[in-house]
């Protein structure tokens, strides 16, 4: 998939987030990269079968105290990883949606265990 098409799908998912939640994403950069870096992979305990589809890097809203004059948090969506696990464009669209929602949830302080309970992991 062309990068511009992939990025447009990510933006579409972000724009579907209700406004009352989107307002809390003002200081969050959402970017698309092909693959995670070695440093990004080291931040997670991944098995050989695991694929990192997205990554939230920052301080979750629930952990902020005196949070001023800081660089934006970052959500990275990995296009190559998503393309690798999907067999169709429809699957890619759904995986982008799931991944974006998952990483935005981390920004709101929701951990992986809770996301598993909610069915968004």
Relevant terms:
globular, 121 residues, 6 helices, Zincin-like, alpha+beta
Could you please describe the fold and organization of this structure?
The chain is 45% helix and 13% strand. The chain is of the alpha+beta class. It has one domain (3-118): Zincin-like, CATH 3.30.2010. Strands 1-3-2 form a three-stranded mixed beta sheet. The longest helix is centred in the last third of the chain and has 19 residues, at 89-107.
Please describe the topology of this protein.
Blueprint: H1 3-15, H2 19-22, E1 28-33, H3 38-42, E2 54-57, E3 73-78, H4 79-85, H5 89-107, H6 112-118
Parallel strand pairs: 1-3
Antiparallel strand pairs: 2-3
Helix pairs in contact: 1-5
Element order: H for helix, E for strand: HHEHEEHHH
Total count of domains: 1
Uncertain regions spanning at least 5 consecutive residues: none
Strand adjacency order, main sheet: 1-3-2
